[in-house]
Structure formats: structure tokens, C-alpha cells
């Protein structure tokens, strides 16, 4: 019986609320205008436009303190809060530490009315703290005590959350950085994993960032080679063309085998080009010799490339003359 009585009371209360809420758009707009003319909004630097509040927060580095109230019908709790808390000199002083924004549920704009729920509110007054992007950092439900101390605590908790979040992100980034370094050292990462970890790593010293970038380049080189038949000369030259593109992007290999494939592929690509890049060929040959010149297994390859160096200028001249004609 008690449960049934509670349900009936709730239904009757809902009917009473509906009966008290006007439906005439002009009346609703007037009530909203009356709400926005309340004295408490003139005591502090309140914003009534969310976009303007976000811009002010971004410019000042302050958090947004949202006061959600309503105008479509009277709300005694909201009125008491606005008169007894938000109108005090102490609150006005505190308002300088935040960007105060007043949100009015007016039944004039359905999108505007839904904002209360998006800020996790279910009644009035409701208070929330946002950052300059509109992200919710804390809420203070309507059933909680409405006092300056509570609002201060709400803002303080939001600020502490940001501090803790930043610390956690730094710790996570440091862990990702160690995972990246160890993974590259032992060869446990795919190219996609390495790129993701590199992007998520904490700010790196320039020298370390450059070293890790070259190690990731080795994975890119391996990724190219996986897609070709390494015993097919045409496909080797095709891979060399991709390596030449990577070279133009400022990428360089790290490991010995990656250097062999990278510079060797570029050499074959340049030699097969209709108009070869002689400077690139010389750079690639010098780099190949530096890393593999002492290895007897590559002496013949290097000698063939040296012969090509002597032939390439004549090839370039022939192409140039044909272009002139």
C-alpha cells in the first residue's frame, strides 16, 4: 500500500508540474528574460552564453562553474541559492577565480534544455565544472547542500582531478616509452605498434627521438620488403623507389641489414631510372660502403655500383639531349 501511495503521489506531482508549466512560447520567453534579469547575475561576471564562457576559459586558463536553474516555473531551491549564496560578497570574490556561467532551462529550446542531462543533472539547481572545451570535470547534484563551501570544494576537486590526470598521463607515457625502447631493441614490435607507442611516448630528448625514429624506419623498410620478391630484380628496384621516397622524407636506416636493403635498393632504383639522380646515387653508395664495405660478400656489388657511377653522367646527358630535341 505504501508503495502504491508513493506512485500515486508521484503521478499527481507530475500532473501538478505539467499544469503549472505554461506552453505559450511568448510566456516562456518572457519568463526566461525575467530569470536572466535577476540581480545575482549582475553582481559577478556571469556568462549566459556557453560559447562565450568557453572562450573566456580558454583565454584565462580558468575552469567554468555552471549554475543550472530554470525559468519555465518557479524553483524555490534555485531562488534560495541565488539569493543566499550567489549574491553574497564572498561568492562574488570567489567568482573571480572561475568563469561563472548561468544555464537556464526555459522550455524555449529543447537542445538547451537537454544540456542539463548532458551535465549529469536531474534537478535544479545543479552545478557542474567544465574545462574550456566543455568537458565535465565535476558535478554537484541538486539534493546536495547549496553553499559557497560546497562550490569551492567542487571546483577544488575538479582542479585536483586535472592534476592527477596529468600525472597519470605522464606515468603512462613513460611506461609506453620504455615499452617502445625495449620492444625495438628485441624486435618485438610491429610497425603499427611502434608508431603508436612513439606517438604516445612522453616528450623525448632530441637525440633519443632521432634514434628511435631510425629504428622505426627499419621496421618500415622491413614492411616494404615483406611485400616483394627479393629475388626479382624489378621488384627490388620498385622497393628502391619506395626507399628513395623515404629518403626524401628525411628517413634513414638504423641497423646493418636495414642499411643494406635501404641503400642497396636506392642504388638499383637510381641506376634503372630514365633520368638518374647522380647525387642520390653517390650518397647511397657512400653509405653502403661505410656500413658494408669491409664485408667480402658485398665487394662485387659495390664494384658494380662504382662502375655505374661512371656510366650515369653519360645516361643523364643522353636524356637531356633527347629532351632538348
Structure description:
By secondary structure, this protein is of the alpha+beta class. It has 14 helices and four strands. It has helices spanning 2-20, 25-36, 40-43, 50-60, 76-84, 89-95, 110-118, 148-186, 191-200, 206-226, 233-248, 256-272, 278-292, 299-324; strands at 64-70, 99-105, 126-130, 136-140. Helix 9 runs antiparallel to helix 10 (206-226), helix 11 crosses helix 12 and helix 12 packs antiparallel against helix 13 (278-292). The protein has two domains: 2-146, 3-Layer(aba) Sandwich (Glutaredoxin); 204-317, no CATH class. Strand 3 and strand 4 (136-140) form a beta hairpin. Strands 2-1-3-4 form a four-stranded mixed sheet, with helices on both faces.
The fourth-level CATH homologous superfamily of the largest domain is: Glutaredoxin
Distance between the termini: 104 Å
**Known CATH architecture of the largest domain:** 3-Layer(aba) Sandwich
Helical coverage, percent range = 55-70%
Total count of helical runs of at least 4 residues: 14
Overall structural class, as computed from helix and strand content, comes to alpha+beta
Q: Indicate the radius of gyration in whole angstroms.
A: 35 Å
Q: What string, H for helix and E for strand, traces the elements in order?
A: HHHHEHHEHEEHHHHHHH
Largest sheet: 4 strands, mixed
The order of strands across the largest sheet is 2-1-3-4
Number of strands: 4
- CATH top level class name of the largest domain: Alpha Beta
Q: Mean of residue pLDDT?
A: 88
Detail the poorly predicted runs. 1-19
